[in-house]
Amino acid sequence: MRNPQGIIFLVLTIVTLALFVSALSRKLRILKLGAPENRFDNPLRRLGNFIMLIPLQGKMLREFYGVIHLFVFWGFIFIVLGEIPLLLEGIFPDLVVPLLGDNPYFYLIKDALSLLVVVGLFIGLIRRWVLKPRRLYRTSEAALVVILVLAVILTDWLVGAAKLALAEGGAVAAFRLTVGYPFFASVFLTGLEPAALAMFRDMVWWLHVFVFFGFFIYIPNSKHLHVLAAPFNGYFASLQPAGAQIPTFDPLAEEVDEYGVGRIEAFTWKQLLDSFACGECGRCMDSCPANLSGKPLNPKKLICRTLKEHLLEKGAVLLRHGLQSTKDLTPERLTELTRLDPEAEVLGRRLVGDVVDPEALWACATCGSCQNLCPVANEHVQKIIDMRRFAVMNEDNYAPELRLAFRNVESKFNPWGVSWSERGAWGKPLAVPLWKEATEPEYLFWVGCAGSFDNSAKKVSEAVAKILETAGVSFAILGPEEKCCGDFVRRAGNEYLFRLMAEENVAMLNQRQARRIVTACPHCLNTLKNEYPAFGGNFEVVHHTQLIWRLVQEGRLQIPAGAAPASPQRVVVHDSCYLGRYQGEYEAPRALFRLIPGLELCEMERHRDRSFCCGAGGARMWLEEDADERVNLLRARQALDKAPQAIGVNCPYCLTMMEDGVKDLAPDQGVEVVDPAVLIARLL
Amino acid sequence: MRIVVCVKQVPDTTEVRIDPVKNTLIREGVPSIVNPFDECAMEAALRFRRDYGGTVVALSMGPPQAEAALRKCLAMGADEAVLISDRAFAGADTLATSFALARAIAKIGADLIFCGKMAIDGDTAQVGPGIAEHLGLTQVTNVQKIREARADYLMVERVCEGGYELVRASRPVLLAVEKTIGEPRYPSVKASVRARRAAITAWNAADIEAPEEKIGLNGSPTQVTRIFTPETRRRSEMLEAATAEGLCDLLLAKLRDAEII
To answer: For residue B255, is it within any domain?
Structure first.
């Protein structure tokens, strides 16, 4: 029926496809500038991740607005499917596409989803431009896409309505279960002449074609590349446990000419894909302790603005000049290039310093909340560690207090710089046995630096020792043979020193034939359990709360009947990042608190895997915090709002940070900061 | 101009532990470090190089594992490192040690030598001056600052009780430095990696033309026969009285009883 215009439509289709493909291939060529990384293994597990994240929208659905995205997602798919029969009319007017073109159930679903999309888009508009949550950016791109999608849906409804009004056989049958088409037919198109209807149908069809083609070309050229990149990002998501995602390299074995990531193309292609996949939802920034405490780190902006804009800008120039990287670009060649092409100036910009604010890099506590919430499985933390590696290992440019902590770890084997020989001193009054003098103890108690030297954390070590002894569990400590596990060193970007610590500790643990390890520090737990296997250390590592809870369940540890009620009766629980998000353990600490007679547990709004960091992870413990609002004060305030008598913690860093917070905010209220082991030990 | 820094690898004994039976230092599980005073000497040499130019050579005598101390110096910024190591050096006292080091320095050819004022394991403070004597050089001990360097002399501050002396020392000169001369730098990762891979020159007794009778046990007029922790007997008594005068009287009586006053 539109045959005279078929040629025009065909040409238009080809031009559209060509523009789409060329935009997409440009993006792919930019991704290929990135470093290689194998994310092609384990296709079945990857498919599983993909299904959970993308079709099922697993992470989106964790909050109300995610439901709208679910509608928009599936609506988009059905609308695009609906385009197949609609557009093919342009060339083959009488073609009926099987399963789609004549399928009333397909149109029923598509019609219902279209309606939900329209409703969802309006809710989205209200949210973004009326409610204005801080995490959403009110950009023209966001507005334009709403208009385009509405136009696509509306013109589709009108074309279909015209077909119904013309009583076209195929349409009447296919649309018989729908609401939208008959509604528009009856409201707008009653009483029109067939000729007018046919003309209306053709005009709106062409309008639809233009809008849809425009949208189609717009996608790979805008932030809506998200819809194409996110599914791949879901498939290529890391398969490693959250605590084992930091890749290592050996500076002593490999000839590495540049450590870490100091130029955008030094990120792997997958890390670059993250920027394309980002849908700018802002869940990450809404839970980022650095961002919420006013630091210059904004995880969303880092991914979808700072890194992405620089990637596109630099990538275009690199491709234009046939370069893979600026690594071997001499200053002379750069000057020459910039003279010929002013845009080549971007090649001279330093990633860490000119593009990314170093202050932002150092604000990250590696709490992992951003990654935990990200619906498209972006990996924010490793990018930050990679850039820190560049600052520390390559440029030797980092905070003096961190330098001191590194030096202390290197020479005294703990960040405080206390003499290494004092490491076992806390256990002497309790006669805690040393591993080398003990006979095949059941557990090695890995005390950690804080548990050995920090006064508050030492009380936890003592409590754990007392509990294990009461339960009849034989255990021993390494004493001066134990060294800093290297958790903060690694997250501060010093892979060289981390390797030294890891290799020495693994050698010692293997020499002493330790197999089962219990530790009171979630950071040590994560490093020993998830990171030491790469260095030949394979141990069964548990957190003390996990072991104690198991001892209770097995009946090996009994809380004496008629034990005096604990002094704090209302305890608000704080989940540490490294026991919680990184290990997925939320129950053991709570179960232990519940053992205390008369103790009432309460939760903060941000709890379990949405817990808010104390602010000390990722080497933040050893860095000054200059900004007005400190992270530990934010968290302590959240806890104190629950009017507790004690704040329950399970990590020595949290212990310090919460104690400091309570001292600052409520010095006279007598709120204790306690590990459950300390309360249990009081009853024994 | 070549600057030599003499460094010693010592056990990290912030608290010396002595085996009560064998009367020897307990070394098991004790990490080795660069003698902290020598680390400061290294820092002083690097700052001197920064201000006046030259190349810095780190020199040590010891068993092959003393290489680790030299690698630390290379990481800090030494241009070269030399280890003199030979079974014949074993059992050397400060005289034989300073002789061997002096031979090596003569071979390297230096006009400025930095040493730490003493090592934390032996506490003798004799090796630096010994080297200067063997080589017939000017020496200044307890140096806390280099004020200025001229072609033929250095102006340095030498710590003495209650202050310092300003010493004009003709070159070539050996300086034995205090820790206050400068906090040793923490090497960058790149420098540490380079140092771990660097080649270290190794010389034996023949290489430095050290005659057998002057090195090791043969060249050592002194020997350590016993090492022990002296017992400290400390008794304390708390005096109590109602008034300050009463307390003073009580104290005076006690002191007179003990024949102290």
So the answer is: no
Interval A64-90: pLDDT, tens: 999 999 999 999 999 999 999 999 988
Buried (b) or exposed (e) across A287-306, using 16+ Cβ within 10 A? Answer: bbbbbbbebbbbbbbbbbbb
Nearest in space to B55 (alpha carbons), one of B103, B4, B102, B107: B4
Out of A404, A419, A496, name the one closest to residue B192 (CB).
A496
Same domain, A325 and A412: no
Same domain assignment for residues A13 and A139: yes
Yes or no: say if A39 and A236 are a contact pair by the CB < 8 Å rule: yes
What's the rounded Cα separation, in Å, for the pair A600 and B213? 81
A1-34 burial, b at 16+ Cβ within 10 Å, e below that, comes to eeeeeeeebeebbeebeebbeebbebbeebbebb
Which of B16, B43, B186 to probe the A interface (max A CBs under 10 A)?
B186
Same domain, yes or no: A536 and A596: no
A97 and A226 inside one domain: yes
What is the β-pairing status of strands B201-203 and B80-84? parallel
Alpha-helix runs per DSSP H in chain B? 36-52, 67-76, 94-108, 127-135, 189-197, 244-257
- Chain B positions touching A421 (Cβ under 8 A) are 14-15, 17, 30
Structural domain of residue A613, as residue ranges? 570-683
Q: Which of A290, A269, A284, A312 lies closest to A380, judged by CA? A: A284
CA angle in degrees (0–180, nearest 5) for B79-B8-B69: 50
For residues A445 and A550, what is the distance between their CA atoms, to the nearest angstrom? Answer: 16
- Chain A residues with CB within 8 Å of chain B CB: 251-252, 259, 392-394, 396, 403-404, 406-407, 411, 419-421, 480-481, 494, 496-497
How far does the CA of residue A260 sit from the closest CA of chain B (Å)?
Answer: 12
Collapsing DSSP to helix, strand or coil, B64 comes out as helix
Q: What is the dihedral of CA B6, B9, B11, B14, to 10 degrees?
A: 30
When scoring A392, A421, A489, A495 by the number of chain B Cβ atoms within 10 A, the one with the most, hence best to mutate, is A421
Taking CB atoms and an 8 Å limit, are A481 and B15 in contact across chains?
no
Structural domain count of chain B: 1
pLDDT at A1: 43
Task: Specify the higher pLDDT residue, A49 or B238.
Answer: A49
Q: Would the CA dihedral through B211, B212, B216, B219 be positive or negative?
A: negative
The answer to whether A569 touches A526, Cβ cutoff 8 Å, is no
- H helices of B125-218, in order, are 127-135, 189-197
The number of angstroms, rounded, from the C-alpha of B11 to the middle of its chain's C-alpha atoms is 13
A338-372 tens-digit pLDDT = 999 999 999 999 999 999 999 999 999 999 999 99
- Give tens-digit pLDDT for A555-591: 999 988 776 666 778 999 999 999 999 999 999 999 9
| Mean confidence (pLDDT) of chain B | 92
- Which residues are A557's β-sheet partners? none
Alpha helical stretches, state H, A127-220: 140-165, 169-174, 180-188, 194-218
Residue type, A278: C
- Beta-bridged to residue A125, according to DSSP, are none
Task: Name the pairing type of β-strands B153-160 and B138-149.
Answer: antiparallel
Nearest alpha carbon to residue A448 among A475, A415, A472 = A415
Q: What is the pLDDT of residues A165-188, one digit of tens each?
A: 998 888 899 999 999 999 999 998
Whether B15 has its CB under 8 Å from any CB of chain A: the answer is: yes
Question: Has residue A560 been placed in a domain?
Answer: no
| Residue pair A139/A207 in contact by the 8 Å Cβ criterion | no
Question: What's the mean per-residue pLDDT of chain A?
Answer: 94
Q: How far apart are CA B183 and CA B185, in angstroms?
A: 6
B22 occurs within a structural domain: yes
Helix A455-470 and helix A652-665, axial crossing angle in degrees, nearest 10 = 130
